[in-house]
């Protein structure tokens, strides 16, 4: 099955009991047992629910792994993955990972003895230099937020294999439509399915796919023990979102190209960050490891005042955190998603006060460009 077919017919295709073409919402907590311990594979919905299972089978198929898991949010998914490790283990994590990932590692899991070094994972030597005898995993996001820095997944995977480390990739920005980390050598892939996979700003969810039976067994044990599961209604919404992932991702990228070309053509923009630009430092790695460049971009308008003016004046871009939905979203990382990072550190990371991030939606690009034009004037 090719990818677009898999998005629609992968996992559990419809309902074998009635012929319904979509998976039903099994709004149920428990299941009748014919005798003690005799059941049809379901005992209690924290342990397993047919709608959630259909969603888990679908993400497993489209990421090409051994088993999928659906959680109540991206952070619940990431937390469950961290729980595969032990007190005293050391992680190497991208220095520009999602703020919530940074927060859970540095304020919650640190108290349980997980030690973390944050490095620029787009520089393989920084990853290598951070390895010590306690290191057990590397966690990265590529392209990263908000500067779209690209990490070389196969190169980091080789390094991990040589040192016996697990490679965990947060594939939220690319989605399995453009990039499949497990095929590139990663061991575990995680998603905030709240973003492109759901795609419509109407569900909060997280997904994990693992590549081997042992991790699958252990992660199911953690999912069942800690209980941060995705409910059946949200699992159903996610399946529904994933069916159109292909057409949406293509349209997001087409619109993004139009906007990037427009911004690059302006002389009053300091910089445009998009891995699809041939002068982007990660362009070639991105071309090797992914099939597309995605729908996220950022650009520097020079000052905090000008950035605020743009945000005040835009009509079709919604001022909001989050990304990956049908509606275009706009934000100023220095004041919003990255506000908790000290200004000196932000400057080191290259997150200037005039930096604007856009998640390009599916409106007509002519309207989006006209809107940016009037807001920048
Ligand atoms: C949003 C996001 C998360 C967290 O996901 P939630 O669904 O909000 O819990 C993790 N990683 C990335 C890259 C994200 O964008």
Please name the defining characteristics of this protein:
377 residues, Aspartate Aminotransferase, domain 2, 15% strand, Aspartate Aminotransferase, domain 1, alpha/beta, 38% helix, five-stranded mixed sheet, seven-stranded mixed sheet, binds pyridoxal-5'-phosphate
What is the strand and helix layout of this fold?
Elements: H1 3-9, H2 50-63, E1 67-71, H3 74-82, E2 90-94, H4 99-108, E3 115-119, H5 124-130, E4 135-141, H6 153-163, E5 166-170, H7 175-178, E6 188-192, E7 206-210, H8 213-226, H9 232-243, H10 245-265, E8 271-273, H11 283-289, E9 296-300, H12 304-313, E10 318-319, E11 329-331, H13 343-349, E12 355-359, H14 365-376
Parallel strand pairs: 2-3, 2-4, 4-5, 5-6, 10-11
Antiparallel strand pairs: 1-7, 6-7, 8-9, 9-12, 11-12
Helix pairs in contact: 2-9, 12-14
Bound molecules: pyridoxal-5'-phosphate.
Organism: Caldalkalibacillus uzonensis
Pfam families: Cys_Met_Meta_PP (PF01053)
Keywords: Lyase, Pyridoxal phosphate
